[in-house]
Amino acid sequence: MGKHPANKKNSHPTLGQVARAAGVGTTTVSRVINGGDRVSPETLTKVRQVIEALGYRPNQAARVLKGDRTRTIGLIVPSIADPFFSSCAEAAQAVARANGSLLIVTSTQNELHNEIENVNVLLSHRVDGLIIAAGNSRSRSLRDLLLGLRAPVVAIDRPISDSGISSVLTDNFQGARAAVQHLIEHGRKRIACLTGEGSLYTIQERIRGYRAAIESAGLTPVIDTSIHDFSAARNAIEKLMSSEHPPDAFFTLKNSTTAHSFEVLQQLHIRVPSSIALVGFDDFELASTVRPSITVVQQPVEAIGHSAAELLFKQLFSGRGSTDGIAQRVILKNQLIRRSSCGCAASLRPSGT
Amino acid sequence: MGKHPANKKNSHPTLGQVARAAGVGTTTVSRVINGGDRVSPETLTKVRQVIEALGYRPNQAARVLKGDRTRTIGLIVPSIADPFFSSCAEAAQAVARANGSLLIVTSTQNELHNEIENVNVLLSHRVDGLIIAAGNSRSRSLRDLLLGLRAPVVAIDRPISDSGISSVLTDNFQGARAAVQHLIEHGRKRIACLTGEGSLYTIQERIRGYRAAIESAGLTPVIDTSIHDFSAARNAIEKLMSSEHPPDAFFTLKNSTTAHSFEVLQQLHIRVPSSIALVGFDDFELASTVRPSITVVQQPVEAIGHSAAELLFKQLFSGRGSTDGIAQRVILKNQLIRRSSCGCAASLRPSGT
DNA sequence: ATGAAAGCGCTAACAC
DNA sequence: GTGTTAGCGCTTTCAT
Questions:
Q1: Which domain range does residue A91 map to?
Q2: Number of domains composing chain A
Q3: DSSP assignments along A48-75, one per residue
């Protein structure tokens, strides 16, 4: 089938083939593709031509085998499609690229089984380092697996318990506490906390923050961790609203819960913020566009991915493996974005920050 | 520093080390890690123990060097953080995993420079195949590069011009035309088309669809391709609204334009849909939650990633390289999701489809 | 400035 | 069943 001029050979051309075609030794070709030092200008030009003509590309696998780094790093997250993690990934990839590396992203759906398998697969590919957001951050087996690696590891969003593994987190506790305090300052007395996935580290920290604020104000905590989906939100809210002492505010601990709750409130024609104030954890697109715009605790998403990757490369370059010396814990600040749903006056140009 | 039991060796243990430790030959170990056929039960157990004890993991690079597939496929997209592409990626990864492969995702910001570099990097890593959403789908150099590969390539979202490269697309033309027709059926006469990134294939197809519907209804097309951001949207809309014949509907060609336009309309206190009807191309979270809920052309995002990966593996397994035989063009249908902003009655339970 | 040759870790003939 | 051995494509001494 008449095809294009390039390489119609069955397989990729090899360095040896280039060498032969150029009438030089393999060493010379190797030098050329690695910067071209110690090669005469003519040879260099000649070899480059041949490389071009043959469409030669060095085989990473062979280089790796010689013991070099693979120039790949792995990122293991619950879901690529989750905006939080995909933003992290984008930021991490930028750093990886700046360091001449490739980022390989895999997803686990928070299942321990997948987390362990992904670590193993990535390791088989000899990634130089690993960034991981582990759903099962307290799993003994995962921890031991990670601890046994020679490659550096950085945990994001959720730390690996009792491991001394570096981590980049946001201050979920403070963020939640500040949000609830804000609600309290608005005079809210019965603030209910709504969420799903109560087993995750992040959620638990946020609950701690909620409790701390509530209790230090002498109020009563009301926590519902059953909100997995829209109908769960609807049920929970209907029940709460028809209870003896209905809440006057909701603090929702994750994006989907915030969105679902907001929609339920609309459907039930409950006024926000007059009847119920609403503050969510985690910002999202359109949180500033809906009416009322929604006040949220905003996490520095890109910064997480960026810092984690930076930290990883720092460990990589500092020579040694995971747990020694530079293991660090980076805690990033969260920010309360005050929009309308908490009771603050609507800003004039609400398409927010 | 007292560490854990695993492998404290400087580097990874090798198959040879396992063989020696187990008192067997390398072939036997190789057999064990490849399924354990033709090995006696005792040896098998023994070897497995040693593997476990040493924390041995086969080195992919070495396998690759032997000519095997790398069991990795590459996905090149404009941005990982874009929900459209991250959903594609998630779907593609699921297929890859089902086929025992790893998906490597890289992003290009639609820059030709990055697209070419990413192809080369992925190729150096000897990915078995490539899925690409090329911003510069008409670039000659990119096309030639892709055509020269022995690895199968599947284009998504945007076809590679004049290349015969397989592609998985949605029917942008039909989708747009149906949306505009819907607006026309609602009695709208002056439907303005708003968008940015007019150079992209997808956008151009949508414009074609818009034109087709408008012209066959004897109306006048009004197209503004300058909407890069919020303030551009604001300017454009203000100008349109104060013109002699202000529009009575907007058809927005991409997510961000839809969201920005919606917000501008709110700020200007222009009633939707009574004064201006709105239909957007591409669904997004909360499109059903805002008030009025927004009617959109919904693309089968997961299906794109899924089909593309399936197609890629099909080509991979069918033995040969890119352009022969099974090169296909898969066109997926888009669906008009009728919510409120087009003028259709609000549905009772508007949290969408 | 350039080349010859020895592996890197693994698999696949081919013996035993 | 199991071991021996020859490379896969590359980098890297060590000569020249």
A1: 72-163+301-332
A2: 3
A3: HHHHHHHT----HHHHHHTT----EEEE
